[in-house]
Amino acid sequence: MGVKFNTRTIAMLGMLIALNVVISIFFHIPIPMTHGYINLCDAGIFIAALIFGWRGGAIVGGASGLLLDLLLGYPQYMFFSLLVHGLEGWLAGYLGAGKTQGRQVAAIGTAVVIMVAGYFISDSLMYTMATGLVGVPTNLVQAVVGGVLAFPIVAGVRPLIKKQTSL
């Protein structure tokens, strides 16, 4: 997507990272079996990706994931979250930004699969494959809920953002 990365856009991405982290901190559920938690981080990632494209999705995804793990006490996941959520945002933005709603659904679906697979690999490397398998359904629910929440927000916010970034 051709959103220019001017000072205003960078400030909006920073505010979206902060908002995403704060909302996800307040709405997170620890999952002891996976040594992790579920949250609303994916909604903010998908919002950034569909509005700001692949760069915005990658920046908000990676930064939000890393900061959440740091602030919630899961430092073992920080590096993995930077990569997995960054890739999730990059892919959703690359495939879905500026496209039809059908393409956006497909982009988010693809990004969901990548995120779930990324955390399966992360959990399997850090703990066991059984831990990775236990995390699949919770990560899937987290990502799908994030996608469902992102669509109406993007539809309502996109006209305002386009107006602001064209100034």
From TrEMBL:
Organism in which the protein naturally occurs: Lactiplantibacillus paraplantarum
Q: Which domain of life is it from?
A: Bacteria
Keyword check for Methyltransferase, yes or no. no
The protein's matches in Gene3D superfamilies, at most eight in alphabetical order, are given as: 1.10.1760.20
The entry's protein name is: Membrane protein
What does the UniProt keyword field contain?
Membrane, Transmembrane, Transmembrane helix
Transmembrane segments annotated in the record for this chain: 12-31, 43-68, 74-93, 105-121, 141-161
